[in-house]
Amino acid sequence: MRIISLNLNGIRSAYNKGLLEWLGKQNADILCVQELKAQAGDMTAEMLAPLGYHGYFHYAEKKGYSGVGIYSKRKPDNVIVGLGIAEFDAEGRYIEAQFGNLSVVSLYLPSGSSGDERQAVKFKFMEAFMPHLRQMIGDSPASVGGASRLLPQTAGSASNVSQPHLVALKQSGREIIICGDWNIAHTQKDIKNWRGNQKNSGFLPEERAWLTELFNEVGFVDVFRKLHPELEAYTWWSNRGQAWTKDVGWRIDYQIATPAVAGKALSTGIYKEQRFSDHAPLMVDYAD
User: Fold this and answer.
1) What are the catalytic residues?
2) How many CB atoms lie within 10 A of CB 21?
3) Is the pTM here over 0.85, yes or no?
């Protein structure tokens, strides 16, 4: 089973750069995409169901902004659009396709790089999402120490909302692969200029600690890092300066999975021969 994750930085732009032709050569079972920057009315028939794939999308309400999607060769048994948290669902950040006992998610975690206001939104999303991640893997926040506390807890806050479909995931013991742009470089190996970015969004200590908690305490697995423990490789490059040419990048795109399915990962790669956006496709082959 081949799964590819790619932040498109605009689906129309990516298509104009040859994404469809490339996809036709990849023999991918599932393609998870982020940052559609399109609404339903902007999507052509080719974008909705390319090359015989089934397409499913979560569009942002704001035009030309965010949005995620999943393309699959096999029609899913069920598709869940959104987390059920209005302020985040309005930005089109989560879609989940279920195939038997496997859930595949396309996720676009907010960026905080534009300023303090958006960084606060990012922290709020992280705070709300961690309990859901714990529920997905069958963990209980109350039973594990070190739970994230990025924001003060208040009655009715997003992090206290119980999501029925995620509770169902917890109870079902599903295998999960969360593909997407997490907008966080986890370690020094995941960012070229780590010294100069320690106070910048995407490499803040709080953000990195949140991923450490996800891996070390909750039990999810960074599939790329499992297969390549020491490799310094990147999935995103700034459009400023000569970041791409000099390979001054960040690894912020991940396939993060439950241990059993992560253990089936055979190989992984970052495709850089063509550019469809400022991100590169992250590919993982899993044993069937």
Assistant:
1) 181
2) 11
3) yes
